[in-house]
User: What shape does this take?
Amino acid sequence: MRVQDITDVKHQTIYEDELATKARATIRDFGLRILPVINEKRKLLAIVSRREVMSISSSVSPIRVKGIMRDPKYTATIEDEAFTVAKEMIKQDEWNIPIINSAQDKTYKGVLGLENFINAIIRTSPEKLARPVSEIMSTKNLVTCSPDEEVDNVWRLMQTRSLAGLPVVRNEKLVGIITEKDLIASAETWPTFESAKGRHRASSIISSIMKTQVIAVEPFAKAIRVAKVMVSKDIGRVPVVDEKKRLVGIVDREDIARLITK
Assistant: This one.
């Protein structure tokens, strides 16, 4: 399986001279994790991720895309072997990467996400996902937050720990989940978001924007069930709970992809 077989060739792009607020709106409206930056010849220049657009504090910011874009940590070509690329994505901790024509020709061709790779395996080799999630879930150093914590503090925690989402827990029980996508979608509760009068809003609490209808599984659930949920619902992580709904672990796309590539 080659990268070109599973690349999203219709993924949105942006130019470096466009407003950074347009990049933020595009990422929000299309639910993107990265937004490739290209020039008029469709050559890949850089990327913008959710983390970069969260740094824009105003809805009328004059900052251009070139002021927040960054080099991708990893870029693959359309002819690369998909399993090799997926392994490198896991190593680099990158869930989405831009794809170019070749090492010599930087023409942008699309975006490859771990979900594209996982979906291909669900269709072609489901036996690779037969193990229970108890064998692949993360249980050590689980980072969680409370529904009563301020959004600003949780956002800073997510930045510091390089986390795209956190389970929300009260009295050891899972009550919700908060992600970067939720923060971007909830414009009025963005950290450091300015009001129309230029004053910073008071920080809201997590319960005001967290998702409470959380898809969770028990430890004996098969990995393929989690993989199908991730692909169909476009979610990056699934909490694992015991019979009393207490959080005991979490499975993310990297865990699923790592199982496939072993």
Q: What stands out?
A: Residues 17 and 64 are 6 Å apart (CA to CA). The chain has eight helices and ten strands. The chain has two domains: 3-124, 133-261.
